[in-house]
Design goal:
This protein has two domains: 256 residues, no CATH class; 88 residues, Immunoglobulin-like (Sandwich). Helices cover 19% and strands 31% of the residues. α4 packs across α5. The longest helix has 14 residues. The radius of gyration is 22 Å and the shape is globular.
Amino acid sequence: MKHLPNFFYTLCILAFAQAIQAQNTCCDASTVAPQITTGFYGTQVAGSASTPGVSLAVNASADLVNVEYVVTKRNSVALDNNGVIDSTDGQPSGSVIIGSNVSGIFVPDNLGRYGVSLNAGDTFDVTAVGYDLSLVKVLADSLLNGKNASGNPCCDLFQLIALLPGNDPSIAGFCDSVRNNGVNGAGDINDFNDVLVVFDAFGGGQTSLASVLSTLQLINSYGSFITTDCGGTGNNDFLPYGVDASAVYGYDREGTVAVEQLSDLSLFMVYPNPANEQLMLRFKTEQTVDVSIRLYNTLGQLLIEQNKAAVAGDYSQMIPTAMLDAGIYTLELSDGKHSKTQRVIIR
């Protein structure tokens, strides 16, 4: 989380080194994080089918009114806006969050955030998160729409926080960022997926469990700045939460080889990787197909698209990359029905 003060950032790195070993809770000694029953589902789940339900080995304490289940894509770490791995990473907490719901039952093909989704053979994990949605709704609504005792918008708080040493000045635009993503008040926050939209505005890119925890700690650390008329308590540590990031239950999305993904694709190579001036894409098909080649940034924005008709056999295509900023991108090869993706690094 690049908005953390330097001293707090150091504490977070130390804390997240322990995150995969112990539960993270706030703000009472009696708070207990919900803990999912760990394991791995031995049968692959079809992309259009619902996963079996999960269970809790440990129930959340009473102050964590809401328990939801967050899905992360294994081995796909969260990236900031520059394509750099989130500095709070620590597996499994560093894996990018691609969805959430209250039941713990997911359809793999319906999951996706930041342009990150599940392909055949991908593995995804479920983790339980406990929090109090009502407090988040009050806080968000007050900050976005309220005024303090002096009559100034509560959003001005972020302009003050942005001026503190070690903080990123862009946090001053927090309220605008949240509104631009469709959250204008309490009525737009109904579950953890909506909470994630708010948390995205604190971060510099994709959100992981580690960055969720750091955002919650960041909000709580500035609790004394948030007055009651702006949804706070005037004290630090006022938003209770509980996450045991080491407790996960895993699934495999059905399909393991490229030939099942893209019209009898028997070869898929991208080189050099990392690249500078250009990428070479090479693939081979056993039948004639029309293909589209697309390159996306970490926000899921389409940067390059090439469409090729009646491709068959061994095929190579050059993709210019000299105009791109250094970072991590996703290259997609699609025949209109199925696709294959490859993460590439531009230096």
